[in-house]
Amino acid sequence: MTAELVRGQNHSLPDTRLEIRVSAGHPVLLGATLGDERGRVTGPEWIAHPGAPSRPGVDVPGPAAAGHRLGVDLDAVPGTVHRLSVLLALPGPRTGGATRFGTVAAPFVAVTDPDGTEIATYTITGLDRESAVVALELYRRQGAWKVRAMGQGYEGGLAELLGDQGLDRPADLAASILETAAGTVPAPAAAPPRTPRAERTAHPAPLSPDPTATPAGTPVPSPPPAQFPTATAPTAPTAPPTAPPTAPPTVPAATPVAPATPSAARPAPAAGTGSGGPVDYAHPRRRREPAAAPDPARTAPAPVAGDASGWSMDERLYNQVWGMFEDLSRTTAAYRSACDFAESRLDRELDQSLSDYRSRVGSANDAARATARARHDELVARAREALDRDLAQLKAESEVVEPALPAAYARWDHPVWHAYRVPAEEPMAVRLGDLHLPERPDLRIPMLVRLPLERGLWVDSGDRGRSEAAALLDETELRRLALESAVAHAARLLAAHPAGGFALHVVDPAGAGAAALAPLVDSGVLAAPPARGAAGVSAVLEQLTERVDLVQMALRNGAADALPPGLDTSRQLLLVHDFPHGFDDRAVTRLRYLADEGPSVGVHLLMVASREDASAYGPLLDPLWRSLLRLTPVSDDHLADPWVGHSWSYEPPLLPPGSGVLRQVLARVAAGRPANQP
Hints:
The protein is an alpha+beta fold.
């Protein structure tokens, strides 16, 4: 049965030898890029286009045409390639053709096996001013390959698309490719022949429209490596946190696959297609073996912890968690899109049944409405079936991955904390909570944030109206939970760094947080006792500001060895409680300076504050709130993913009731501190 995909939906591929057929009704350029696990293409040698039609595992057809066939052999793709993107681009005005997809028929893409049997189809709707689009993405997942319907359009054309995939000088490269494509532009050809089906006479309607499409000319950029959700402040959206890119594996040089030669046993080319029928992937000197029956287990392999790409186990687990987060986001978007389409079609059909007043009464009208509702229920049931299948696979993967996580990635109730030892090196990331969507609340994805932190953290101790859980608490209880949550975050950051690699300062002007701060104070992990009063606040801020200035000047002048001998060069974390109590205008200015300039030289900020308490400063503090990653002490749906903008519910990292694991971990951190460090 053919899977009719909507944007964001994925589907397992039963075979590694495929053909991708494109029908556009207008000349388009077809190409493909080979990327690493983040979709980044390392150079022009990993782009297949009419000027370079053969790359390892992929053969593209000639110049722009209305119908294309692209041959893919995933077994021939190098092991360091994890994503194969299928690109469509309009050749431009130089050929007298269209300049944007919104003026031509929606392109239709079909993934077939070598015999032409359709596996999945996708009609790319929702395009307007875009002149280039990533149609499909073939990607590795748990040792198997899947196809995802992308439909990612670019108003900036092929140059913007290539730049988004990480290529240098994309404008020059795009111009060269389009020049090659413009050399010979055949007249519009008939669509490639499709698998005969009695009930299908034209391109199928998509399962859903494109509610996730962005406004015209505003493509959703590919998320940077290791980017987790964007926290939004209560009144203004926050810029997404970007982490330093992980060095992608270098794609080794490989011998390109020779152009496929049609076999004599293949059917003759269909008239008007401009292509020689299905591609024969057999090597001319290799004995042809009969095709084996597809293995059902291959479409749903047993999950394995650490099966993602990476050099170390920590990196592989991190990438696997990121892949789970991405899959859950996209499969849920496909389900919601399908349900929205079913609802809109039902409303349209019911309105049509009532448009003719003569048919409003009688059995014919009742039958039409019953048929419309049945079609609606069938579409929703199919969408739910696909969602349940994907969620079950992700749930099984989560049950395997969660027990294998190291301490920095694990929940506080994980047994790994009982065997905790101070690490010898900094991990890739730390876990700051969990994320889930309402379609499956029990499926929690760890929220991992890359180290070193690129932005400060803000635990919101106010704004009870944004969360049902917060609304049930009084103000005092919410503030207590916020500080306890911040202490847990600080302890995790301390535990994630090597001995002497992380220093913690605490500002508690009124001493109101003494009870919650007791584990930090009693264990001896603080660089100094919590600062009290306005004088204490000023002294700590002055010390850290001076450190930022000195390190910045040393780095800019290449004189890192000229730093004062007594300067602590370890990373610093400032935990601020009860802001803005005890802060004068000078202290507020220094705090903003630390938030902006500190992360680049190893000074980080963790604030426990309410915007309402600081409302007297007005818009002066808006840049401060926007520069911080907002977290909450209770469950709240204030995080958005970088693809479709889902409202993810954030769960703070709660300690097991009555557990002494926090004090145990802090004691081991304190025991591992160098003797000369306070």
